[in-house]
Amino acid sequence: SGGQPEGRSVLALLRAVVALVVTLTILTFALYSGYLSYTDLSPEEVRVPAAELTVDRAGRRVAYGRSSLTRESRLWFLHLEGPPEEIGDAHGRLAARLWGELDRDVARLLRHRYPEGLERWTADMVMRWDFRESDQSLAPGVRRELAALAAAMPEAGGERLSSYHRMFLDQSFVELTRRLDDVLLEGTMFAAAARPKGGGERGNLVIGRSFFADLGLDVEPDRLVAIVHPDGKYPFASVGWAGLMGVVTGINARGIFVALDPTRTDDALEEGVPLPLILRQILEDADTLEQALEILQAAPTRTSGAVLVGDGRQRRAAVVELARDRDDRKPRGEDQALVWATNHMLRESFERDAQNDRIRRFTSSGYRYDRLGELLNEAPVDPARAVAILRDRKGLGGEELGLGNRNALDNLHLTHAVVVDATAMVMWVGEGPSALGRFRAIDLRHALGRRQDRPAPLDDFPADRLLHGEEYSDYKEALEALGHARGLLARGLPEQALASASVALALAPDVGELHRLLGDVERELGDLAAARRHYERYLELVPGRLRDQERVRGLLEELRE
User: Fold this and answer.
1) Which of 83, 115, 301, 502 has the fewest CB atoms lying closer than 10 Å?
2) Which of 242, 218, 210, 250 is nearest to 436 (CA)?
3) 339 has which bridge partners?
4) What is the DSSP string of 366-404?
5) pLDDT tens-digit map of 377-429
């Protein structure tokens, strides 16, 4: 206190700075905590009666109360029964391990493409704001089921998200992937009910459906068939994955079929119900095609999507193209014998939509749509023909595309492939990999009824001959060599990486990711002409990864300078 005035001034200034820093830190922490609290989603309290969990002697069937999870060959069957709380609780307890495996694959993908940092943190904060109070748009029964599901899987929670919040976002995967530059979700769907040549009643309504989630060449999610008997509503069968309450592919006991293909438009995200949950509402409540279309036309959707709706009893189907800001939801193909869709919209109101046009022209959607049109008009469609269409690996006019080409209907990495005779009430689900494996027949009248007799004896469709051939073995070995080459390049060994990648190139020359790697390797080694050739080939073979395409185009511009 007795020092020089200058010293006392500096000390006072330091004290003021420290006080300001501490105050700002406390204020920032309080604001951040308040933001997290305000944007967090909170479940309502649910009470679920305890049930006994039992495992059969073979270890392939686990029962929990009235519900069960069974593995049959390469398929998982999740049987759920009861009120919403019991269905959610059983779903979480029975399928937690399968959900965890899928969650790790998704997390690895996000870390690889969108590393941790300010950009990732900012995206998380924006996402929290956009989804604040979003669960309030759900029906009460759906909220209770979601709360019970989250309570049964506490491991779904993390540092910044509760288990309930996280499981709600899992139901909103269509909206979340739309925020990414890359197109991670693609779908193909068609329905056919041709009249015989002599006229008369239409034939059975036959539907083909495949779904692709781009989680990486080495990831094959478990295929899960959910057989759900909700109290007071129509039973339904859904093909998807663990943790999914909604529906992307499904049919109910009345023969009403629904399938969802994600799309993108210029419309902003709005408050509303995630599309998979709207499709589930259709299966639980709709008795006819007209009722299903009414639900879709009135639904408050968050984002856009193309939905195929079929009625097996009426032998009719239609595609509804949904966007929140477009009032016109008139169904397409309702009175036609054939109707199909991929991931872009066809209605006139979307002709000037930039995002829709980009998906049509710069991803595989437009190409797959045209190829579907060729195949569907070649011959009448029965279940065997539908399986063959889903397995098609050729291009327009029968052009050879090469194994793994993203433009093919079967790119060898489909998440699931399904054929349904909605009139006869039979569903065939591909066991994988992709659409190559056996398509297992399921008697829907038995699975969705309450009879205790045995299901009808039905014929499966055998595996594609490619599955056990040398060409497919070469393709799988090429993917292993590609992974080895990536590891070598990451360790700074481009020459060794080139050797391993060259083996992969000889085994499977049409794998897009391989050409991206070879471009990087040749650039490291100084062969710029070879790097350009591989980068250009990558752009041809992988039309869906828009973020990577922009990076590669930037590299090509650098190489041309």
Assistant:
1) 115
2) 210
3) 191
4) HHHHHHHHHHHTTS---HHHHHHHHT--B-GGG-B--TT
5) 999 999 999 999 999 999 999 999 889 898 999 999 999 999 999 999 999 99
